[in-house]
Amino acid sequence: MDIACWQSVPIVTFLLGTWQVQRRKWKLNLLETLNNRINHEPLELPNNLEELESKEYYPMKVKGTFVYEKEFVIGPRSLLMDGETKSSGSLVGSGETQKGYCVITPFKLLDRDCTILINRGWIPRTLKNPVKRQEGQVEGEVEITGILRLNETRPPFVPKHTTKDDMWYYRDVNEMAKKAGTAPIYLEMISNKDFPKFPIGSQTKVNMRNEHLSYIVTWYSLFLATGYMWYKLIIKKVPILI
After folding, report:
1. Are the beta carbons of 28 and 45 closer than 8 angstroms?
2. In a designed cystine with 222, which of 13, 96, 143, 187 is the match (CB 3.0 to 4.6 A)?
């Protein structure tokens, strides 16, 4: 490795470590903001839909009736418990992988001529057919609280929807709303003890991958190691055999 390379490596690794420090600070601030929002007192759904753009992750309280004949599922999805993915447990059988779907149901608002989308929660694969979960379809006017989520662009490697069969793979609020004939408003319903066991509500994931600390340690360690080698090579003129 020539001298120019020895001079650049410590600088590059130091800059990468410093960049990860900034990224970690940004990620921690973002997580704090999301947690503050999701634990906020429920808000009333605003009449002006443009206001929703700045309200993602806030809980919204609404009254109305579910339109079960137009519901569909999105998935496959893992069961979330307290915001964390649950890999196995006793809810649908000991040792079973908690894979299933989230049930999306149109919700006709009581106080205005508007229907929105409600993610009522998670169901196991065995209950995908609505006929098998009639007890979960609460009739009449109800009041619910849900976390507002905005439209999601298709993630990498996720297939496109097959709208003909009502198979949805990600939170495409705009297309879902067109299909169901609703406004493009999507709430993830919070668990309510007054509702049946399935669907299981509170399927909002807030925790984000945060491995920046390990990256910081890695890059700064490389900076120290290569900096020491640079010092021996350039300052002390000690040949380094590689």
Report:
1. no
2. 13
CA 57 to chain centre: 10
Beta strands in 94-190 (DSSP E): 99-109, 115-124, 142-149, 167-168, 186-189
Please give the full DSSP string across 175-210, using - where no structure is assigned: HHHHHHT--S-EEEEPP-TTS-SSSB----------
Q: Assess contact for 104 and 177: CB atoms under 8 A.
A: no
The answer to whether 154 and 160 have CB atoms below 8 angstroms apart is yes
Lookup result for tokens 């508007």: 114
Measure the CA–CA gap between 92 and 201, rounded to whole angstroms: 15
User: Whole-prediction pTM value?
Assistant: 0.74
Q: Report yes or no: 138 and 157 within 8 Å, Cβ to Cβ.
A: no
Instruction: Give how far Cα 162 sits from Cα of 74, 75, 129, 141, 151, Å.
Output: 11, 12, 17, 32, 18
